[in-house]
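Structure tokens please, single chain.
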Amino acid sequence: MLSLKDLSYLVSLNELRHFGKAAAACHVSQPTLSGQLKKLEHQLGVQLIERGSNRVILTHVGLEIAQRAKAMVLQAHEVEELARTSNTPLTGRLKLAVIPSLAPYLMAKTGARVGALLPELKIELHELETAELLRQLRNGDIDVGILVLPQAQAGLRSLSLWREQLWLGVGREHEWAHRTQVTRTQLLSDKMGAELILLQEGHCLADQAQQLCQLKSQSQAFRGASLETLRYMVSAGNGATLVPQLSMEAWISHGEDRIVYIPITEPKQAREIGFLARTGSAYWPCVEALHEVMTSVLPSVSTGTQTVPLVI
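Here you go.
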């Protein structure tokens, strides 16, 4: 009978490609890990690792087995977590990933309440862009994600948290600063397209701008790496940008008074924020508890907003 522990050693070695690091990750000595992998090769009757090289190289069959073993090890871990959480569902460590355009603002808004109402739940926070978040979620490297909800994903289950309105941010000296609203048609004008600065491609907010508003920055001179970078650019009078509501509220609360925020209408623009976890995950009680706590402190959603799923 194959040992899940031995398979986990192979999975770790495949991911880290270093015997010492894999041993440390598995909390065993390097000789123990090497010995168990040789035992696994003997049991299977195949060579899993090329030896004699300065770097770790898995054979073709070794790579195939490691990839399949990853799913087996993950399922075994979820069985253990299911048993543990059935008795104490809101305790222990939760590896939670949040997209960069949301993470600092959402956690600042909700973190204190989460800590007060779920004191035994230790959240290990990761900040990941959407594609990497989905990859790590499927691989079992994180437990739960909070992101702009994508279209239905096989093997993943979602729970909507909030619809976050998007605003147009311009400097106080901008010719549009006096406006009380702006339509999507006006945003599509050549003039605004030339001024609009967005995040770098790959950030979900840049994708959201294109999908919700059919916007695309015509300026090739600058693409921001973070919302904070765009904030400083706009506040200095350089262009305009889309600002999610939580970011706007955070900037205002920290005394940012050089940006005017204009609601986008006809229709209003919003992105649907939610939780994503594996379908059979044992962490759904944590997701539901976090959902209840976070929705209690998030702003109410105005009607008439348009939400469009982010295509991955």
